[in-house]
Design goal:
268 residues; mainly beta; five-stranded antiparallel beta sheet; 4 helices; 14 strands; 36% strand; elongated
Length: 268
């Protein structure tokens, strides 16, 4: 079974979600500028701390005792009161975005974007001035990676960059790049405040209360593809987390026309 669209996604909700249980990506399917929104399950605001407000062990024990006594209404009253006094959960945050932008004017025809629900593979197919292109993306659990491949009947130049999320810095290497980010500090909102309309979420800016840091790395390699086609492939992996989350992003590129790659990779 496949879900099929005939235009790229404009909003996050229209993208194709892919994942391997730990690493996730939303693919927009752009043929002039592709967007991959990445996340990873260890990236949260805040930091490990033993603090609990409102929903204490004593409150839960009291509610349990009332329930066993056949007084569910009183038990629910205690739980609801303590829940609304409790500190809100911390926020799951994104790793950031990867962008693939094709250079030059393009004339796109025959656009088709599909998500294979049985194979969990997203595919974009189109022609640029009569030359066929195919973009494929999936996340592998054995490889612990998200793979993105572009096949085409012509040489192409693509600019790769990264940004948004909580990325803070970038450094260029001889064969790739490094990205640093840091999740926001702990939020002290209660559940009541968090559910209030128009409340601005705030995070601690104290150095000792900032959230997890994370690292991404990209590696670029050039190669050949099957006869008649040019190909570019990159993979994204998050390897580990330190409490301050560590991550690793690996980009493997095989194809042609990755002109000035080091100069083009930059924070958006």
């Amino acid at each position: 079974m496949k879900i099929v669209f005939h235009q790229p996604a404009v909003y996050w909700e229209e993208g194709f979600p892919l994942g391997n249980g730990r690493l996730g990506a939303v693919m927009y399917g752009g043929c002039e500028k592709e967007v991959l929104k990445l996340n990873e399950d260890t990236l949260w605001s805040g930091y490990p701390v033993k603090s609990q407000r409102g929903m204490s062990a004593e409150a839960k024990a009291r509610a349990g005792a009332l329930a066993r006594e056949g007084k569910p209404a009183q038990a629910m009253e205690i739980l609801e009161k303590k829940l609304w006094e409790a500190e809100d959960v911390q926020m799951y945050v994104p790793f950031g975005n990867l962008y693939l932008e094709f250079a030059g004017d393009r004339e796109i025809t025959g656009y088709r974007r599909s998500l294979d629900l049985e194979r969990a593979v997203a595919t974009v197919e189109y022609e640029n001035r009569g030359k066929r292109y195919e973009h494929t993306c999936f996340c592998s659990e054995p490889a612990r990676a998200c793979f993105y491949r572009i096949r085409s009947e012509e040489a192409f130049t693509v600019k790769i960059s990264a940004g948004e999320g909580f990325l803070q810095d970038m450094r260029y290497e001889e064969d790739g790049f490094l990205l640093w980010g840091q999740c926001p500090g702990r939020s002290g909102f209660t559940v009541t405040e968090g559910n209030g309309g128009g409340v601005q979420q705030t995070f601690s800016q104290e150095a000792e209360e900032r959230g997890m840091g994370y690292l991404g790395a990209g590696v670029v390699r050039l190669g050949t593809a099957e006869p008649g086609f040019r190909r570019m492939v990159f993979s994204v992996r998050i390897l580990m987390s330190w409490c301050f989350a560590s991550g690793f992003v690996q980009a493997l590129t095989a194809g042609t026309g990755i002109l000035g790659f080091m100069g083009w990779i930059r924070r958006s």
